[in-house]
User: What shape does this take?
Amino acid sequence: MNMKFPRSLAPIFALVLGLAVGAPAAAATPDELIRPIQEQWAEIKYKQPEKQQAEAYNKLAAQAKKVVEANPGVAEALIWEGIVLSSEAGAKGGLGALGLAKEAKQRLDEALKLNDKALAGSAYTSLATLYAKVPGWPLGFGDKERAEEYFRKSLAINPNGIDPNFFYGEYLAERERIAEARSHLEAALKAPPRPGRELADSGRRQEIQTLLAKLNKEAK
Assistant: This one.
């Protein structure tokens, strides 16, 4: 039996039927969740004046926190909240940044428990950098030995990555282990490009080249 609906109701019925039988919307992947945070972070880091960066990172940290809260158990989101908090701490500087650094450490530790290989071991890289730069006891949790341990773990997961090689190279340069530092900085320059992270890669390469030039100048 053929059923005919009034012409005015047919489009509505079709819409309801389509919604009922249509496939459910796919959940966002971790990469899709963090991409806006990554892009805004790179804009702040490499395009905004330094004196404006702390406030910009603060606003971005609030956005990252919302992503984490809306997506519990996603290590990648926790890592990027930790990265943004770390960046805010670095831009703010001084003892007032210690609270932010501790928050960042907490997020990164949580991410490690969920998946230490997420984002190619980025939680290890970020934690290592925090341990290297934060003051030690009694002011902070800084620990050079732990920094070294975590840098090595990050490189075991991502030996050719631009970030683990750069930050470890920077750490080694600060320890006056120049030959090792230069080796990792040169490896960072050869790192494969990261799709969608062109601004971050370009800015990081400039940092690497600046540090290498400084080391070469000091060696003369």
The mean pLDDT is 89.
